[in-house]
Design a protein that fits this description.
By secondary structure, the chain is an alpha+beta fold. It contains 13 helices and 14 strands. Its EC number is 2.7.11.1.
Length: about 425
Protein backbone atom coordinates (compact mmCIF):
# COMPACT_ATOMS: atom_id res chain seq x y z
CA UNK A 1 0.00 0.00 0.00
CA UNK A 2 1.45 3.39 -0.99
CA UNK A 3 1.53 6.15 1.62
CA UNK A 4 1.99 9.85 1.01
CA UNK A 5 1.43 12.92 3.16
CA UNK A 6 1.72 12.77 6.94
CA UNK A 7 -0.94 14.21 9.23
CA UNK A 8 0.58 14.42 12.68
CA UNK A 9 1.88 10.92 13.44
CA UNK A 10 -0.29 9.34 10.73
CA UNK A 11 0.98 8.52 7.24
CA UNK A 12 -1.97 8.76 4.88
CA UNK A 13 -2.62 6.26 2.09
CA UNK A 14 -5.32 5.53 -0.45
CA UNK A 15 -8.93 6.74 -0.47
CA UNK A 16 -11.40 4.07 0.67
CA UNK A 17 -14.59 6.15 0.72
CA UNK A 18 -16.03 9.50 -0.30
CA UNK A 19 -19.14 11.49 0.65
CA UNK A 20 -20.67 14.95 0.45
CA UNK A 21 -18.37 16.64 2.94
CA UNK A 22 -15.63 14.09 3.47
CA UNK A 23 -13.16 11.58 2.13
CA UNK A 24 -12.04 8.53 4.07
CA UNK A 25 -8.46 7.35 3.69
CA UNK A 26 -6.54 4.48 5.22
CA UNK A 27 -3.47 5.53 7.20
CA UNK A 28 -0.86 4.07 9.52
CA UNK A 29 0.13 5.28 12.98
CA UNK A 30 3.90 5.71 12.61
CA UNK A 31 4.38 5.27 16.38
CA UNK A 32 2.62 1.91 16.67
CA UNK A 33 2.26 0.61 13.10
CA UNK A 34 -1.52 0.35 13.63
CA UNK A 35 -3.76 0.89 10.62
CA UNK A 36 -6.44 3.56 11.07
CA UNK A 37 -9.07 5.22 8.92
CA UNK A 38 -9.08 9.01 8.66
CA UNK A 39 -12.22 10.91 7.70
CA UNK A 40 -11.10 14.19 6.13
CA UNK A 41 -13.57 17.07 6.24
CA UNK A 42 -13.25 20.29 4.28
CA UNK A 43 -13.49 23.00 6.93
CA UNK A 44 -14.61 25.62 4.41
CA UNK A 45 -17.58 23.50 3.32
CA UNK A 46 -18.57 22.85 6.93
CA UNK A 47 -18.40 26.58 7.71
CA UNK A 48 -20.26 27.62 4.55
CA UNK A 49 -23.09 25.23 5.39
CA UNK A 50 -23.20 26.61 8.97
CA UNK A 51 -22.58 23.17 10.43
CA UNK A 52 -19.61 23.94 12.70
CA UNK A 53 -21.53 23.79 16.00
CA UNK A 54 -23.43 20.68 14.95
CA UNK A 55 -20.25 18.93 13.81
CA UNK A 56 -18.62 19.90 17.11
CA UNK A 57 -21.50 18.42 19.07
CA UNK A 58 -21.80 15.26 17.02
CA UNK A 59 -18.09 14.41 16.99
CA UNK A 60 -18.13 14.89 20.75
CA UNK A 61 -21.05 12.48 21.01
CA UNK A 62 -19.20 9.89 18.94
CA UNK A 63 -16.18 10.09 21.25
CA UNK A 64 -18.43 8.98 24.10
CA UNK A 65 -19.19 5.71 22.32
CA UNK A 66 -17.21 2.64 23.39
CA UNK A 67 -18.88 -0.49 22.03
CA UNK A 68 -17.47 -3.52 20.17
CA UNK A 69 -19.99 -3.07 17.34
CA UNK A 70 -19.37 0.65 16.79
CA UNK A 71 -16.41 2.15 14.95
CA UNK A 72 -14.23 4.01 17.48
CA UNK A 73 -12.97 7.58 17.16
CA UNK A 74 -9.40 7.84 18.49
CA UNK A 75 -8.60 11.52 18.10
CA UNK A 76 -9.17 14.66 16.05
CA UNK A 77 -6.50 16.75 14.30
CA UNK A 78 -6.96 19.98 12.35
CA UNK A 79 -5.13 22.18 9.89
CA UNK A 80 -6.24 25.59 8.65
CA UNK A 81 -8.38 23.97 5.95
CA UNK A 82 -9.09 20.38 7.01
CA UNK A 83 -10.52 18.44 9.93
CA UNK A 84 -9.11 14.93 10.39
CA UNK A 85 -11.14 12.41 12.39
CA UNK A 86 -8.91 9.43 13.21
CA UNK A 87 -11.00 6.28 13.52
CA UNK A 88 -10.74 2.54 13.90
CA UNK A 89 -9.89 0.84 10.60
CA UNK A 90 -12.29 -1.99 9.74
CA UNK A 91 -10.60 -4.22 7.18
CA UNK A 92 -13.50 -6.38 5.99
CA UNK A 93 -15.26 -3.68 3.98
CA UNK A 94 -18.93 -2.72 3.79
CA UNK A 95 -21.82 -5.11 4.32
CA UNK A 96 -23.17 -3.81 1.00
CA UNK A 97 -20.09 -5.26 -0.76
CA UNK A 98 -20.75 -8.66 0.83
CA UNK A 99 -24.39 -8.45 -0.27
CA UNK A 100 -23.44 -7.53 -3.85
CA UNK A 101 -21.85 -10.91 -4.50
CA UNK A 102 -23.78 -13.14 -2.06
CA UNK A 103 -27.18 -11.53 -2.72
CA UNK A 104 -28.69 -13.05 0.43
CA UNK A 105 -27.27 -14.47 3.64
CA UNK A 106 -28.07 -17.61 5.55
CA UNK A 107 -30.53 -17.17 8.39
CA UNK A 108 -27.74 -17.79 10.92
CA UNK A 109 -25.41 -15.12 9.50
CA UNK A 110 -28.22 -12.61 8.89
CA UNK A 111 -29.43 -13.04 12.47
CA UNK A 112 -25.91 -12.59 13.87
CA UNK A 113 -25.40 -9.32 11.96
CA UNK A 114 -28.87 -8.10 12.96
CA UNK A 115 -28.23 -8.94 16.62
CA UNK A 116 -24.96 -6.99 16.54
CA UNK A 117 -26.68 -4.08 14.78
CA UNK A 118 -29.42 -3.93 17.43
CA UNK A 119 -26.82 -4.16 20.22
CA UNK A 120 -25.06 -1.10 18.78
CA UNK A 121 -28.30 0.80 18.21
CA UNK A 122 -29.54 0.03 21.73
CA UNK A 123 -26.26 1.25 23.25
CA UNK A 124 -26.39 4.53 21.33
CA UNK A 125 -30.09 5.20 21.84
CA UNK A 126 -29.64 4.78 25.59
CA UNK A 127 -27.22 7.70 25.37
CA UNK A 128 -29.49 9.90 23.26
CA UNK A 129 -27.50 9.36 20.06
CA UNK A 130 -29.25 8.37 16.81
CA UNK A 131 -27.83 7.35 13.45
CA UNK A 132 -30.54 8.44 10.98
CA UNK A 133 -28.79 6.82 8.02
CA UNK A 134 -28.51 3.10 8.76
CA UNK A 135 -27.90 1.10 5.59
CA UNK A 136 -25.42 -1.59 4.47
CA UNK A 137 -22.96 1.06 3.24
CA UNK A 138 -22.59 2.25 6.85
CA UNK A 139 -22.26 -1.27 8.27
CA UNK A 140 -18.71 -2.61 8.18
CA UNK A 141 -17.32 -6.12 8.70
CA UNK A 142 -14.11 -6.62 10.68
CA UNK A 143 -11.44 -9.28 10.19
CA UNK A 144 -13.29 -11.64 12.56
CA UNK A 145 -16.58 -11.36 10.69
CA UNK A 146 -18.28 -9.07 13.21
CA UNK A 147 -20.41 -6.07 12.30
CA UNK A 148 -19.41 -2.52 13.20
CA UNK A 149 -21.62 0.53 12.66
CA UNK A 150 -19.89 3.62 11.28
CA UNK A 151 -20.85 7.30 11.38
CA UNK A 152 -23.11 7.06 14.45
CA UNK A 153 -24.19 10.60 15.25
CA UNK A 154 -22.68 12.31 12.20
CA UNK A 155 -25.98 13.41 10.66
CA UNK A 156 -24.59 16.94 10.18
CA UNK A 157 -22.16 15.61 7.61
CA UNK A 158 -24.98 14.53 5.31
CA UNK A 159 -26.90 17.14 3.37
CA UNK A 160 -30.68 17.07 3.91
CA UNK A 161 -31.17 15.55 0.47
CA UNK A 162 -28.68 12.77 1.11
CA UNK A 163 -31.20 10.81 3.14
CA UNK A 164 -33.26 10.51 -0.04
CA UNK A 165 -30.59 8.65 -1.98
CA UNK A 166 -28.58 5.52 -1.42
CA UNK A 167 -26.06 3.86 -3.70
CA UNK A 168 -28.93 2.72 -5.94
CA UNK A 169 -30.54 6.17 -5.98
CA UNK A 170 -33.57 5.46 -3.80
CA UNK A 171 -34.68 6.30 -0.24
CA UNK A 172 -35.14 2.64 0.47
CA UNK A 173 -33.94 2.62 4.08
CA UNK A 174 -35.70 5.78 5.26
CA UNK A 175 -38.74 5.70 7.55
CA UNK A 176 -42.10 7.03 6.24
CA UNK A 177 -42.18 9.89 8.75
CA UNK A 178 -38.80 11.12 7.50
CA UNK A 179 -39.83 11.05 3.85
CA UNK A 180 -42.89 13.24 4.47
CA UNK A 181 -40.69 15.70 6.40
CA UNK A 182 -42.54 15.35 9.66
CA UNK A 183 -40.76 15.88 12.94
CA UNK A 184 -39.62 12.42 13.81
CA UNK A 185 -38.11 10.49 16.67
CA UNK A 186 -34.60 9.31 15.89
CA UNK A 187 -35.04 6.01 17.73
CA UNK A 188 -38.13 4.95 15.76
CA UNK A 189 -36.56 6.01 12.45
CA UNK A 190 -33.46 3.92 13.20
CA UNK A 191 -35.63 0.89 14.04
CA UNK A 192 -37.37 1.15 10.65
CA UNK A 193 -33.99 1.24 8.89
CA UNK A 194 -32.91 -1.84 10.85
CA UNK A 195 -36.04 -3.56 9.55
CA UNK A 196 -35.16 -2.77 5.94
CA UNK A 197 -31.62 -4.05 6.50
CA UNK A 198 -32.90 -7.32 8.03
CA UNK A 199 -35.33 -7.86 5.15
CA UNK A 200 -32.53 -7.32 2.60
CA UNK A 201 -30.14 -9.67 4.41
CA UNK A 202 -32.72 -12.47 4.40
CA UNK A 203 -34.32 -11.83 0.99
CA UNK A 204 -31.43 -10.59 -1.14
CA UNK A 205 -33.49 -7.61 -2.31
CA UNK A 206 -35.12 -4.53 -0.80
CA UNK A 207 -38.68 -4.52 0.54
CA UNK A 208 -39.51 -1.25 -1.24
CA UNK A 209 -38.47 -0.75 -4.86
CA UNK A 210 -40.00 1.22 -7.72
CA UNK A 211 -38.49 3.26 -10.56
CA UNK A 212 -41.15 5.91 -10.02
CA UNK A 213 -40.22 7.94 -6.96
CA UNK A 214 -43.83 8.83 -6.14
CA UNK A 215 -44.84 5.17 -6.21
CA UNK A 216 -41.84 4.27 -4.10
CA UNK A 217 -42.80 6.87 -1.48
CA UNK A 218 -46.35 5.51 -1.47
CA UNK A 219 -45.12 1.95 -0.89
CA UNK A 220 -42.89 3.05 1.97
CA UNK A 221 -45.55 5.20 3.63
CA UNK A 222 -48.05 2.32 3.49
CA UNK A 223 -45.46 -0.38 4.24
CA UNK A 224 -46.43 -2.23 1.06
CA UNK A 225 -43.98 -5.10 0.73
CA UNK A 226 -44.13 -8.83 0.07
CA UNK A 227 -42.06 -11.35 1.97
CA UNK A 228 -40.45 -14.16 -0.08
CA UNK A 229 -42.03 -17.57 0.38
CA UNK A 230 -38.95 -18.87 2.21
CA UNK A 231 -39.35 -16.39 5.09
CA UNK A 232 -40.20 -18.21 8.31
CA UNK A 233 -43.08 -17.24 10.56
CA UNK A 234 -40.66 -15.77 13.09
CA UNK A 235 -38.94 -13.64 10.44
CA UNK A 236 -42.24 -12.36 9.04
CA UNK A 237 -43.55 -11.48 12.50
CA UNK A 238 -40.47 -9.49 13.50
CA UNK A 239 -40.20 -7.67 10.17
CA UNK A 240 -43.87 -6.65 10.33
CA UNK A 241 -43.19 -5.07 13.74
CA UNK A 242 -40.06 -3.31 12.44
CA UNK A 243 -41.72 -2.03 9.24
CA UNK A 244 -44.76 -0.59 11.00
CA UNK A 245 -45.56 2.73 9.24
CA UNK A 246 -46.93 4.35 12.41
CA UNK A 247 -43.89 5.30 14.55
CA UNK A 248 -45.81 5.05 17.83
CA UNK A 249 -46.84 1.48 17.05
CA UNK A 250 -43.42 0.42 15.76
CA UNK A 251 -41.52 -2.08 17.88
CA UNK A 252 -38.98 -0.58 20.30
CA UNK A 253 -35.41 -1.79 20.66
CA UNK A 254 -36.17 -3.17 24.13
CA UNK A 255 -38.93 -5.29 22.57
CA UNK A 256 -36.68 -6.48 19.74
CA UNK A 257 -34.24 -7.78 22.34
CA UNK A 258 -37.02 -10.01 23.72
CA UNK A 259 -38.25 -11.27 20.33
CA UNK A 260 -38.23 -15.07 20.01
CA UNK A 261 -36.54 -15.17 16.58
CA UNK A 262 -33.98 -12.55 17.61
CA UNK A 263 -32.94 -14.40 20.76
CA UNK A 264 -31.84 -17.61 19.02
CA UNK A 265 -28.06 -18.01 19.67
CA UNK A 266 -28.00 -14.41 20.92
CA UNK A 267 -24.78 -13.38 22.66
CA UNK A 268 -24.99 -9.83 24.05
CA UNK A 269 -21.99 -7.61 23.43
CA UNK A 270 -19.25 -7.84 26.04
CA UNK A 271 -16.27 -5.66 26.90
CA UNK A 272 -18.32 -2.48 27.19
CA UNK A 273 -16.57 -0.15 29.69
CA UNK A 274 -18.46 1.32 32.62
CA UNK A 275 -19.94 4.79 32.15
CA UNK A 276 -17.16 7.34 32.25
CA UNK A 277 -16.56 10.99 31.41
CA UNK A 278 -14.71 11.03 28.11
CA UNK A 279 -11.91 13.48 27.38
CA UNK A 280 -13.40 15.87 24.85
CA UNK A 281 -10.58 18.43 24.90
CA UNK A 282 -9.43 17.50 21.40
CA UNK A 283 -12.85 18.44 20.06
CA UNK A 284 -13.81 21.47 22.14
CA UNK A 285 -10.50 23.30 22.13
CA UNK A 286 -10.85 23.55 18.37
CA UNK A 287 -13.92 25.78 18.67
CA UNK A 288 -12.78 28.09 21.49
CA UNK A 289 -11.74 30.99 19.30
CA UNK A 290 -14.60 31.31 16.82
CA UNK A 291 -15.96 34.81 16.74
CA UNK A 292 -13.59 37.70 16.04
CA UNK A 293 -10.80 38.60 13.65
CA UNK A 294 -7.40 36.99 13.25
CA UNK A 295 -4.52 39.42 12.83
CA UNK A 296 -1.99 38.94 10.05
CA UNK A 297 0.76 38.52 12.66
CA UNK A 298 -1.07 35.64 14.29
CA UNK A 299 -1.68 33.99 10.94
CA UNK A 300 2.01 34.21 10.07
CA UNK A 301 3.01 32.43 13.27
CA UNK A 302 0.38 29.72 13.15
CA UNK A 303 1.71 26.13 13.13
CA UNK A 304 1.17 23.75 10.21
CA UNK A 305 -0.79 21.29 12.32
CA UNK A 306 -2.85 21.98 15.41
CA UNK A 307 -3.31 18.86 17.50
CA UNK A 308 -6.44 18.29 19.56
CA UNK A 309 -8.60 20.43 17.27
CA UNK A 310 -6.98 23.41 18.97
CA UNK A 311 -7.52 26.12 16.35
CA UNK A 312 -9.88 24.55 13.84
CA UNK A 313 -11.56 27.85 13.10
CA UNK A 314 -8.34 29.64 12.20
CA UNK A 315 -9.68 32.10 9.64
CA UNK A 316 -10.27 35.80 9.08
CA UNK A 317 -13.13 35.95 11.58
CA UNK A 318 -11.05 34.88 14.58
CA UNK A 319 -10.22 37.26 17.44
CA UNK A 320 -7.34 36.49 19.77
CA UNK A 321 -7.33 39.86 21.53
CA UNK A 322 -7.19 39.54 25.29
CA UNK A 323 -5.76 36.05 25.00
CA UNK A 324 -3.33 36.42 27.87
CA UNK A 325 -5.68 37.94 30.43
CA UNK A 326 -8.57 35.57 29.91
CA UNK A 327 -8.72 32.28 31.83
CA UNK A 328 -10.62 29.29 30.50
CA UNK A 329 -11.50 25.96 32.05
CA UNK A 330 -13.47 23.01 30.70
CA UNK A 331 -15.29 20.46 32.82
CA UNK A 332 -17.35 17.42 31.82
CA UNK A 333 -20.74 16.71 33.36
CA UNK A 334 -22.73 13.48 33.20
CA UNK A 335 -25.95 15.36 33.90
CA UNK A 336 -28.57 17.20 31.85
CA UNK A 337 -28.19 20.92 31.09
CA UNK A 338 -30.72 21.85 33.78
CA UNK A 339 -29.02 19.71 36.43
CA UNK A 340 -25.61 21.05 35.43
CA UNK A 341 -26.78 24.67 35.75
CA UNK A 342 -28.09 23.86 39.23
CA UNK A 343 -24.69 22.49 40.22
CA UNK A 344 -23.02 25.64 38.88
CA UNK A 345 -25.31 27.68 41.14
CA UNK A 346 -24.32 25.56 44.15
CA UNK A 347 -20.62 25.97 43.37
CA UNK A 348 -21.05 29.73 42.99
CA UNK A 349 -22.76 29.92 46.37
CA UNK A 350 -19.83 28.02 47.91
CA UNK A 351 -17.46 30.85 46.93
CA UNK A 352 -19.94 33.69 47.65
CA UNK A 353 -20.78 34.52 44.04
CA UNK A 354 -24.20 35.37 42.64
CA UNK A 355 -25.52 33.74 39.49
CA UNK A 356 -27.29 35.55 36.67
CA UNK A 357 -28.84 33.36 33.98
CA UNK A 358 -28.43 34.92 30.54
CA UNK A 359 -30.22 32.07 28.74
CA UNK A 360 -31.09 28.41 29.30
CA UNK A 361 -27.48 27.28 28.97
CA UNK A 362 -25.31 30.23 29.99
CA UNK A 363 -24.78 32.09 33.27
CA UNK A 364 -22.71 35.00 34.54
CA UNK A 365 -21.11 35.02 37.98
CA UNK A 366 -20.40 38.12 40.05
CA UNK A 367 -20.10 39.15 43.72
CA UNK A 368 -23.36 40.01 45.52
CA UNK A 369 -23.80 43.76 45.90
CA UNK A 370 -23.31 43.59 49.66
CA UNK A 371 -19.95 41.85 49.18
CA UNK A 372 -18.47 43.95 46.42
CA UNK A 373 -16.05 45.57 48.87
CA UNK A 374 -14.75 42.27 50.25
CA UNK A 375 -14.46 40.58 46.83
CA UNK A 376 -12.82 42.52 44.04
CA UNK A 377 -14.63 42.80 40.72
CA UNK A 378 -14.70 39.51 38.84
CA UNK A 379 -16.24 38.67 35.47
CA UNK A 380 -16.88 34.96 34.99
CA UNK A 381 -19.23 33.22 32.59
CA UNK A 382 -20.12 29.55 32.29
CA UNK A 383 -21.73 27.97 29.25
CA UNK A 384 -23.16 24.46 29.26
CA UNK A 385 -23.03 22.68 25.90
CA UNK A 386 -25.11 19.54 25.45
CA UNK A 387 -23.24 16.62 23.91
CA UNK A 388 -26.00 14.09 24.62
CA UNK A 389 -29.04 14.45 26.91
CA UNK A 390 -26.92 13.08 29.78
CA UNK A 391 -23.47 14.45 28.93
CA UNK A 392 -22.49 18.12 28.87
CA UNK A 393 -19.34 20.16 28.50
CA UNK A 394 -19.00 23.24 30.71
CA UNK A 395 -16.87 26.07 29.35
CA UNK A 396 -15.90 28.53 32.10
CA UNK A 397 -14.27 31.84 31.19
CA UNK A 398 -12.82 34.61 33.37
CA UNK A 399 -12.26 37.85 31.48
CA UNK A 400 -11.43 40.00 34.51
CA UNK A 401 -10.99 39.82 38.25
CA UNK A 402 -9.14 37.88 40.91
CA UNK A 403 -7.76 34.51 39.84
CA UNK A 404 -8.10 33.08 43.37
CA UNK A 405 -11.91 33.30 43.38
CA UNK A 406 -12.07 31.89 39.86
CA UNK A 407 -9.94 28.88 40.81
CA UNK A 408 -11.96 28.28 43.98
CA UNK A 409 -15.17 28.26 41.94
CA UNK A 410 -13.73 25.80 39.39
CA UNK A 411 -12.46 23.53 42.16
CA UNK A 412 -15.82 23.60 43.94
CA UNK A 413 -17.74 22.85 40.74
CA UNK A 414 -15.38 20.01 39.83
CA UNK A 415 -15.95 18.40 43.24
CA UNK A 416 -19.72 18.79 42.99
CA UNK A 417 -19.79 17.23 39.52
CA UNK A 418 -17.87 14.25 40.89
CA UNK A 419 -20.28 14.00 43.81
CA UNK A 420 -17.64 14.82 46.41
CA UNK A 421 -19.22 17.94 47.89
CA UNK A 422 -21.76 17.98 50.65
CA UNK A 423 -23.23 21.15 49.15
CA UNK A 424 -24.25 19.55 45.89
CA UNK A 425 -27.87 18.93 45.09
Amino acid sequence: MGYGVCVGKYQVGRTIGEGTFAKVKVAVNTDTGQNVAIKILDKKMVLENKLMQQVKREISAMKLLHHPNIVRIYEVIATKTKIYIVMEYVSGGQLSDKMSYLRMLSEKEARKFFQQLIDAVDYCHSRGIYHRDLKPENLLIDSKGNLKVSDFGLSALRKPGDMLSTACGSPSYVAPEVIIHKKYEGAAADVWSCGVVLFELLAGFLPFEDRNTTNLYRKISRAQYTCPEWFTTGQRKLISRLLQPMPRRRVKVSEILEDEWFRVDYEPATGIPNEEVANLDDVYEAFDSIGGKLTEATKAKSPSFINAFQLIAMSNDLDLSGLFEEQKTKLCSIHSITETIEKIEVAAKDVSLSVERTNSSKVKLHPPKKLTRSISHIAVSAEVIEVTPTHCMIEISKSAGEIRVYKEFCKSLSSILKGKSGSST
